[in-house]
Design a protein that fits this description.
InterPro entries: Aldolase_TIM, EpmB, Lys_aminomutase/Glu_NH3_mut, rSAM, rSAM_sf. Helix 7 runs parallel beside helix 9 and helix 11 packs across helix 12. It is globular and about 55 Å long. About 30% of the residues lie in helices and about 15% in strands. By secondary structure, it is of the alpha/beta class. The chain starts with 11 loop residues before the first helix and ends in a 7-residue tail after the last strand. The chain contains 12 helices and 9 strands. The longest helix is centred in the middle third of the chain and has 13 residues. Bound molecules: pyridoxal-5'-phosphate (PLP) and iron/sulfur cluster. Iron/sulfur cluster binds next to loops. Pyridoxal-5'-phosphate (PLP) binds next to strand 1 and strand 2.
Length: about 350
């Protein structure tokens, strides 16, 4: 099938503006009553609720424990004090050589392009990060370019955030042109959840700057459950692949969302059917407010051992953990049953 762009589709910024911002708005769409949902007023003050409607459409009607709903529904349980959980578990504050750059690993840098996202995930390890809502100004992009020229060993730039695809294509295009002009760079990586929650983010304008870039482009999507991947996502991924983009997925292992063999197997199978390869499955970072999603590392390793029995090796995401101070992500071996 040749994917065709639907020119009558709503613009992603319209869909973003129409995103759900409270449980009260969400309940009628899912046929849930107020009594079934937990109190959330305090949690919403600490971290706003934000859920685009295309994502809501993939939730199961009437299911208060829906795995997509659990990821985004504010819950005052987040406000309980939790010993051992931190506001900056990855110690990124220590690796900020200058505004917007996180340089932890030798040959790649992470650029924080914006603090905002199209969806607010309750388990997010960046929920307390002091980004402000501002996007990188042109002058700051120029300082990223300066930083790169001073670090010729860096051959890959990773656009992160927040969500870098929150930037308009009219902003991204010129930024990427500057990266194209640096001979040291081989690859441009984009870490984004936006094409999952609003597939129309993949539009003509985005494909244009992708096509105009000489860099190899890798899009690392973020999804945690098979139900997040629908036909609309698959169609957009097909367009990206036509443009030569390598499309990967990273997820987070979350209690009550994807902590079963079936959920993990279904996710990998669905990703592959949509043209996406599993990359990482992260163990949960001990972020303040997220303790109710946490699972032990040994549970994660046993779970992935059972998943490995059911999937071909190329559909096994690497179970990984970010340990502050380490020169790369730490990959955890699945524990096999015999
Ligand atoms: C996770 C991360 C990367 C990317 O690591 P990969 O293993 O290449 O995916 C790069 N920089 C920082 C700061 C990171 O946290
Ligand atoms: S999209 Fe990513 S960065 Fe944004 S809230 Fe969700 S997990 Fe965090």
């Amino acid at each position: 099938m040749i994917p065709i762009q639907n020119t009558t589709a709503p613009h992603w910024s319209t869909e973003l503006a129409q995103a759900i911002k409270s449980p009260a708005e969400l309940m009628p769409l899912l046929g849930l009553s107020e009594q079934t949902l937990p109190p959330a007023a305090q949690a919403m003050t600490s971290f706003k609720m934000l859920v685009p409607r295309p994502f809501v459409a993939r939730m199961e009607y009437g299911n208060a424990n829906d795995p997509l709903l659990r990821q985004v529904l504010a819950d005052d349980i987040e406000m309980l004090p939790s010993a051992g959980y931190s506001k900056d578990p990855l110690e990124e504050g220590n690796h900020n050589p200058q505004k917007a750059i996180v340089h932890k690993y030798e040959r790649r840098i992470l650029v924080i392009t914006t603090g905002t996202c199209a969806v607010n995930c309750r388990y997010c390890f960046r929920r307390h990060f002091p980004y402000g809502d501002n996007q990188l100004a042109q002058k700051e992009w120029d300082s990223v370019i300066d930083y790169l020229t001073q670090h010729p060993e860096v051959n890959e730039v990773i656009l992160s955030g927040g969500d870098p695809l929150m930037l308009k294509d009219s902003q991204l295009g010129p930024h990427i042109e500057k990266l194209n002009a640096l001979p040291q760079l081989k690859r441009l990586r984009i870490h984004s959840r936006l094409p999952i929650v609003i597939p129309n983010r993949i539009n003509h304008e985005l494909l244009e700057w992708i096509n105009n870039s000489r860099l190899d482009i890798i899009l690392v999507l973020h999804s945690n459950h098979a139900n997040e991947i629908d036909q609309a996502v698959a169609e957009k991924v097909a367009l990206l692949k036509q443009a030569g983009v390598t499309v990967l997925n990273q997820g987070v292992l979350l209690k009550g969302v994807n902590d079963s063999v079936e959920a993990q197997v279904d996710l990998s199978e669905r990703l592959f059917s949509a043209g996406i390869l599993p990359y990482y499955m992260f163990t949960f970072d001990p972020i303040e407010g997220g303790a109710h999603f946490d699972l032990s590392v040994s549970f994660a390793q046993r779970l992935m051992g059972q998943v490995a029995e059911k999937l071909p090796g190329y559909l096994m995401p690497k179970l990984a953990k970010e340990i502050p101070g380490q020169p790369a992500k730490t990959v955890l071996a699945p524990t096999l049953s015999r």
